[in-house]
Amino acid sequence: MKLLGILIAGLIAVPVLAQTPEIDAVLDKAGDYVATYEKTFVGVVAEETYRQQVQGGRGRNDARGFPVETPGQRRDLKSDVLLVRAPAGDRWMQFRDVFEVDGKPVRDRAERLTKLFLQPSASTQRQVDDIAASSARYNIGGVNRNVNLPVLALNVLDPRNRAWFSFKGARKAGNTFELEFQEERTGTLIRTASDQAMPSRGRFTIDAASGSVLSSELVAESGSLKARIEVTYSLDPGVNALVPREMREKYSLGDGSTIEGKATYAKYRRYQVTVDTAVK
Asked: Could you tell me the pTM of the whole model?
């Protein structure tokens, strides 16, 4: 496997599957919540502390012909993570601006940001691809992935995507609702580099009164790869919004190796662009 990629394609006309009235009501509130979240959360940046570890996997064979496990690997990243509008302005995407790798500062940060956001690419899609690739450039392991972003699962609740999934669920303790989802289309949200479908499934814990998302779990699988991403949210007084606090991920590959990650988020603030001018 070379790449786990987010496929943004034209909407495919499929029927909306029948849900119970209670689930429809929760989906309506959650859809409104996500639509508002996309607008209000753009401009919010958080500091991400992120550890990735790779274990196992069969490498070369020894003299007797038995496979030898490859050594483990670990990487610690510190980044600013923020939502940005895609260059065409038709959707939002998350950007990971890595500024420290294993305790060492990233040297080309200023030049990279200038190229990504201030120097237009030949095409809008090329710029989107460049932003996604830049966000994933320091990942380790046998999967060059760009899905390890905490708000990815919210795409499922976006009103524009609702018809692509079936839902079921039940009210839990207090006013929370556990909503399970299953992708029901061939043009899946997550695909491999060879354009192989990876249907997703998972669950959300949702505040039934407001539609706000308290946690998410997303699982996507192909024949040789399984990915799981879990995110918890909590209220941040500084930005007055529920924000990702922790992301846990695990990728299981066909060769027996696993990639695991844990990211925590702090120092939420709204970023501002300032321009210094000097008059001669």
From this structure: 0.82
- Structural domain contains residue 279: no
Say how many domains are in the chain.
1
Whether residue 203 contacts residue 26, with contact meaning beta carbons closer than 8 Å, is answered with no
**54 class by beta-carbon count within 10 Å (0-12 exposed, 13-18 middle, 19+ buried):** buried
Contact 256, 56 (CB under 8 A): yes
Handedness of CA 31, 146, 94, 248 (dihedral sign): positive
Cα 206 to Cα 189: distance, rounded to the nearest angstrom? 21
- Cβ burial, residue 148 (10 Å; 0-12/13-18/19+): buried
Residue 226 in any domain: the answer is: yes
Sequence letter at residue 90: D
Inside any domain, residue 4 = no
Distance CA 58, CA 257 (A): 7
131 in a domain, yes or no? no
Range of the structural domain that residue 29 is part of: 17-78+143-270
pLDDT tens figures, 147-185: 888 998 998 999 888 889 999 999 988 899 999 999 988
